Amino acid sequence: MSKFPLLSLSPLGPSDIQEQLDSEFECHLVGRDGSLEELLERVGGQVTALVTTGGRGAEAELIERLPKLQVIACYGVGVDAIDLVTAARHGAAVTNTPDVLTDDVADLAVFLLGALHRLIVRGDSWVRAGEWARSGGIPLGRCLRGRRAGILGLGRIGEATAQRLEAFGMEILYHKRSPLPDSNWSYLDSPVALAEQCDDLIVCCSGGSATHHLVDEKILNALGPESTLVNIARGSVVDETALVAALRAGGIGGAALDVFENEPEVPEALFDLDNVVLAPHIGSATWETRRAMGTLVLDNLRAHRDGRKLLTAVE
Ligand code: 8YV
């Protein structure tokens, strides 16, 4: 069988997954095999598949330079950075990696919220700096038990996050397009109403134009100084300028963030705030999950190459 030429914008997770991709396909990897521009000039006219990540995506200009493109395989669940309209116009199918990362991303939401309220990061710095012995303990934290978690976007990741937080004794409130038919979780019919009612707003919705700056100054005001924000979804969902202003002015009580508007840039105005926990977009970043995501990318590419139905096509 002739090898299937593909352009990959990023290596796939654990190295054995990338080795598998290299052995089964004619993989042209940006960085390793040349710059994007060099590879586009060299093989852009032949490649039939593009491998990208949730963060990198594929813009219209790139898709348009791949005239034989048939499939875009995204190593990530979020496809908001892929120009789906242009892909469809070019007849290119898009696949992503849902389900396999749900648990890790939901776990991280809980860990971030716990780290924020129990002052884990602050305590770590305190110990390392010798302040425990010098100055005594750090201030008291807050327990999760009894707080109201507001889940903004109750899809797979939102639901898994809610289940975990419920196990910590939190009350679950949520907003999505329509309420769940049978649930003891409380439905709020707007993001503002959710922000007003909850203690911790957990952003779990998809990115993209429909949710761009959904969490704006109005929502942050509705949260108020006793409440916090956790974002494990996409940086674009939160108006970062408004968030920084609210945090600096004490307009909200704190934030734990895994995603940012212009990754890997993070506003320096957050660095000296004690009530902020920052993570470098690690929601799915475990060996186990990255292996499962890489395997799913491979399986989708194999299915396409062999003329079988794609496993996880984005509809
Ligand atoms: C990954 C993600 O960080 O799934 C997504 O949409 O943002 C993350 O899981 C990314 O796609 C892999 O680099």
UniProtKB/TrEMBL annotation:
Limits of the D-isomer specific 2-hydroxyacid dehydrogenase catalytic domain: 11-314
Keywords: NAD, Oxidoreductase
UniProt keyword NAD present: yes
InterPro entries per UniProt: D-isomer_2-hydroxyacid_DH, D-isomer_2_OHA_DH_cat_dom, D-isomer_DH_CS1, D-isomer_DH_NAD-bd, NAD(P)-bd_dom_sf
SUPFAM superfamilies, per database record: Formate/glycerate dehydrogenase catalytic domain-like, NAD(P)-binding Rossmann-fold domains
Family: Belongs to the D-isomer specific 2-hydroxyacid dehydrogenase family.
Protein name from the UniProt record: 2-hydroxyacid dehydrogenase
Organism of derivation: Fodinicurvata halophila
